[in-house]
Design brief:
This protein is of the alpha+beta class. It folds into two domains: about 140 residues, Chitobiase, domain 2; about 170 residues, Protein Transport Mog1p, Chain A (3-Layer(aba) Sandwich). It is about 30% helix and about 30% strand. It contains seven helices and 17 strands. Strands 9, 10, 11, 12, 13, 14, 15 and 16 form an eight-stranded antiparallel beta sheet that branches. It starts with a helix and ends with a strand.
Length: about 325
Amino acid sequence: MKKITTILALTFFISSCSDGKNTFVLKSSIGKDNRVLVVTKALFWEGNIGKEIRNYLGETMVGLPQPEPVFTLSQVDPQGFSKRLNGSRNILIVEKNESEKFTVVHDKYAQPQTIIYLSGKDKASIVGLIKKHQKEIIKVFKLADVKVIQQRFSKKKKDIATFKTIKNLGISLTIPSSFRKVDDTGDFLWLRQHLKSGIARGDGSNNILVYSFPINDSSAIADNITALRDSIGKKYIPGSAEGMYMITEEAYTPFTVDAIVDGKKAYETRGKWEVKNDFMAGPFVNYTVVDEKNNRIVVVEGFTYAPSVNKREFIFELEAIARSLQIK
């Protein structure tokens, strides 16, 4: 009887290990944020296929003072796609096949992991598919990385219940515990994280702003984002001397696109900020979320001050924080 019980228990364990995703037996994925491993033949990578991939996934990221790509790309031939490399977090597999295919698979070899399979019957077909799905490819990898960062931050996050503005607005955010309060009026929240690595250590900082405005004209929200953030800068974010405060850089037009945050219509704005009559400047990412139920917009913005260093990773972490917004 004891032997039968042991066999049944072993059978249950084995069947549990084969429930589809095998998530708990998968190895941990490798790779930093905003990195994509492209698995394709060298002939493809060096030709038009590789050119199209680099044009879109490796294009310059909007709103940064220094040119930095949306993704850092690396390429490996399918024959070199080893057991070690198949644990990469973001993988784009491009190959020739009898039929066209665009498929997204999660957690196949490791966890967390996102693999996009893209195949066509010839080179021209593959190039066409890359052009057709370019925005979707970027979106899939970006949102996957955002989720990874949010999970990372959730392990050691700020107790947001202590902030008056968070409570008054009836929202929640996943904010790393390394951020410290600069100002919390009940209507406006400013949090700052001092950067601890690289050239920016000591002087550099990541910043989060949270506030809201009533909706006066729903058709003009996107057009008023710059004016609204400039009014907030003038009121709450002073410079080092009188008459100095944060504004949207006058020489650079911000770039605004539609977005979805917490299932709600939103606008994502990227650009550069500067301090009026001073030399401080840097990039920002702003999410203006339309809360129709409460006839207001809720704004979560992140901005970085990190002289002389690349800023893509800083802005991306701030994006992940902003996208964690939930309106109760």
